[in-house]
Amino acid sequence: MKKTLISTALAVLFAGSASASLQFFSNSFSPSGVSGDGSTMVGLSGSGWAYWTQSTGIVEIGGNSTGRIQASDDGTRFGASANGGPNNWRQFAIYDRGTSSWTTYGDLSYHSGTNGSTGYGISGDGLTVLGQAYYNTTAPGSTAARVNPVTNNDPNATPYNYDPNTVNNGRIQASNFDGTIVGGYDRGTNPGTIWVNGVIQQMQYDFGSGLVGLAPVQDISGDGRWIIGDGNSASLGSAYLYDRINDSYKFAPNPYLANAEIATVTSVSDDGRFVFGRYLRSGFNPFVDAHIFVWDTQLDTITDLNQIADLAGFDRQGYTFTLPGGMSSDGRTFTGQGFKSGNPTQTFYMQLDPVPEPATMSVLGLAAVAILRKRKKS
């Protein structure tokens, strides 16, 4: 019933929208995110990183395509990997659109082959690059990947090693606006983790038989309050939303639990209301078999993005959206890829009209109930 009501509300909201839009792009551009303001899409194109805006189209910017690229909130700076330093090894780096140049940020005075560090994202203000690096352990010649943001724009700055150890690798891949709260995972098999001003906190929950570790952190809201992470076996495949202020968790509905599908999430809106991701069964094709969704954490509903696109009146051209790239901070711009049998995958960029305030959504829900009751009587 909840799913029907939210669908009816969305139909009222998006029907006849004048400013909403849906665009498709060549399958050679594979998005991994979108800026907080929704203006700039980033991803892989060919053998290197690229970005897209309405005014520039797809612009290839090179770099080293290992890791992941993400955009600052205003879309002017990107965190990823590029080759640099005296040996031209791979390092985490920031690309500045204003200067059309990469700045690399070194390593922990150690490397693995030609790999000094790897970039996986950037803070909202564009000043902290996120990723992992290597350091020399007590065993001569051995390495361990580390989580290391660089906290300013100084190319000579020393990467910060959040948790030196000789156990296993970790990664930082999410940040709030100013880089003071970052997240990912620590020491390989340990739970998802956040660091608040350098202080570590693991994502754990008691489902009734003691604390268990939750999956890696994937995104953090700009103010640092809302933390999201993937599903795992402990959460029965459901993604989680952690409220850092109230120290409380919510878990997404899993309509595909009977099919053993597990959630992977990419983005949370700044107000914590919307989470973007997909459900997929282990070992299945993400371009064909995934279920792409928006989780409304207030109404506790999962709505398929394809359904939202249809209710907004968009022509999906026969494509089924399956692979999420990213969502803007206001929860109204989505990027990803779609599948159509016998055709190459296509990248999409979908922008909706502004999402209503919770009170407005409640009114729409009540209107939906009235509509359904009227239909039943007729």
Key traits:
single chain, 378 residues, mainly beta, four-stranded antiparallel sheet, 42% strand, globular, disordered N terminus, disordered C terminus
Describe the structure.
The protein is mainly beta. The protein has a domain at 1-50 and 256-378. The chain contains three helices and 29 strands. The protein has a four-stranded antiparallel beta sheet, with helices on one face. A hairpin with a 2-residue loop joins β15 (192-196) and β16. Mean pLDDT is 85; it is low at 1-18 and 358-378.
Give the gist of this structure.
The chain is mostly beta strands. The chain has three helices and 29 strands.
| Tally of strands | 29
Strand content: 35-45%
Number of helices: 3
Percent helix range? 10-25%
Q: What is the CA-atom radius of gyration, in angstroms? A: 21 Å
